[in-house]
From TrEMBL:
Domain KaiC: 1-222, 223-442
The keyword Repeat belongs to this UniProt entry's keyword annotation: yes
Gene3D superfamilies referenced in this protein's UniProt entry, alphabetically: P-loop containing nucleotide triphosphate hydrolases
Ranges for domain RecA family profile: 221-377
E.C. number(s) listed in UniProt: 2.7.11.1
Gene Ontology BP annotations: DNA repair
The name this protein goes by in its record: non-specific serine/threonine protein kinase
Organism, as annotated: Geoglobus ahangari
GO molecular function, one term: ATP-dependent DNA damage sensor activity
PROSITE patterns for this protein: KAIC, RECA_2
């Protein structure tokens, strides 16, 4: 449900709701998503459009996963007719509203109506035909209004006389990306837990990004999954718990990606489902790295999925939504995200922590053990200086990798900084990268 998750009880019966926003913010898609939910509940929907022909509307909605060509959905195309005919059509719609008695009326859009009629005419239409009908039959109505770019306010100065709720859709430009934001400015008769939410429009519909409450006790697992590195399994008392979040922190060249490859490949070899998400290399580069470290992809290709994403192509929230969809759809036993640093460049620390909290909940609900890498140099001789961040608090396990020069050679060391609810080594261990990948030395 699009709005019932964020508005307690959803849109109240007997309400007229205004959806306002600039061009391209998703107003029609939001209204259509609500319409589809009403259809699924066996309700009748009357959709009055001044912006698209019927064929264009159905085709555009199918592109975002909405199938509205169903019994109970009535589409009125006023886009293709002239002003004089529109006046006759409005009279016809008055009659249709009272004859059909729809449970939901959508008007797309008031902006288009105002180009053809006077404000007094439109005000009369809203008051006498829409608002009166909605109150009389305890149904619902959605009015869509386009807000000019840069203009403050949410309507044209007449909607406030009839609306019971206002939803504003916005495109917020930040850190070289546009974020879609939904603001619930008003909703009479409903309690609003939080007035602002980010959302995305995908080929599966409109997804509102909200972090649900989690009863952690419902998702606790005592099963441990191998790290893919035998000695690391010993140091962690058997690996990582199913549903846990592990962050591997280290500087460039410390082998973070290789740790992730071991984790995915070894579990896939055991018959488990694995997903490797990379933001830093191509899929072919990951396959080449696996081959170089002696990890044969052929026997696990049906169980180990590799996705390469370009962090600059979309907003960070888009990728977190995509990752959560991968988890929910594929239900992998293990997942690697390489790396958080690529997303961190486009988010502030609070946003990253919020996304990780969301990922934590999704992974626990599906029993997926997630390993994420983070590029950061850490001095193992002074771990007290390691910054305490929201990310380190959210992680169940944290492994710190470090490189240094000794005797003219590059050396690598690691320490298990944290492993929640499990005994683990507290020593610093030297390790190397070779043909077989990571080898930890005592």
């Amino acid at each position: 449900m699009v709005l019932s998750k964020i508005i307690s009880g959803g849109i109240p019966d007997g309400s007229v709701i205004l959806i306002s926003g600039e061009a391209g913010t998703g107003k029609t898609i939001l209204a259509s998503s609500i319409a589809q939910e009403e259809l699924e509940r066996g309700k009748k929907v009357m959709f009055i459009s001044f912006n698209e022909t019927e064929d264009e509307f159905f085709e555009n909605m199918k592109k975002v996963g909405l199938d509205l060509e169903k019994p109970g959905f009535l589409y009125y195309d006023l886009f293709s007719v002239g002003r004089g005919i529109v006046e006759n059509q409005l009279n016809y719609i008055y009659t249709e509203i009272y004859k059909v008695k729809p449970d939901l009326i959508v008007i797309d859009s008031l902006t288009s109506i105002l180009t053809s009629f006077s404000r007094d005419h439109v005000r009369s239409f809203l008051n006498t035909s829409i608002s009166r009908f909605v109150k009389m039959l305890n149904s619902k109505a959605i009015l869509i209004s386009e807000r000019p770019f840069g203009r403050e306010g949410f309507g044209h100065g007449i909607e406030e006389f009839v609306v019971d709720g206002v939803i504003s859709l916005e495109l917020v430009y930040e850190r070289e990306h546009y974020r879609r934001v939904m603001r619930i400015l008003k909703m009479r008769g409903r309690r609003i837990e939080k007035p602002s939410y980010e959302f995305e429009i995908t080929d599966s519909g409109l997804i509102v990004f909200e972090i649900p409450e989690l009863d952690a006790s419902e998702f606790v697992s005592n099963e441990k999954l191998t790290t893919g590195i035998p000695r690391l399994d010993e140091l962690t008392s058997g690996g990582f718990y199913r549903g846990s979040i592990t962050v591997v922190v280290g500087n460039t060249g410390s082998g973070k990606t290789t740790f992730g490859l071991h984790f995915c490949h070894a579990n896939a070899m055991l018959g488990r489902r694995a997903v490797f998400v990379t933001f830093e290399e191509s899929r072919n580069a990951i396959l080449r790295a696996m081959e170089n470290y002696g990890m044969d992809y052929e026997p696990v290709k049906d169980r180990l999925l590799i996705y390469d994403f370009v962090p600059e192509a979309k907003s960070p929230i888009s990728y977190f939504v995509e990752i959560s969809r991968l988890i929910s759809r594929y239900r992998p036993d293990v997942m690697v995200i390489d790396s958080l640093s690529s997303l961190q460049q486009h988010m502030n620390p609070t946003e990253l922590a919020k996304m990780m909290r969301y990922l934590q909940i999704v992974s626990k609900e599906n029993g997926t053990a997630v390993l994420a890498t983070l590029n950061r140099w850490v001095d193992l001789s002074s771990l007290s200086s390691f910054p305490a961040t929201n990310l380190s608090t959210l992680a169940d396990n944290m492994i710190v990798l470090s490189t240094f020069i000794e005797g003219g050679e590059l050396k690598r060391k690691l320490v298990i900084l944290k492993q929640r609810a499990s005994p683990h080594s507290v020593r610093v261990h030297e390790y190397s990268l070779g043909e077989g990948g990571v080898v930890i030395h005592d």
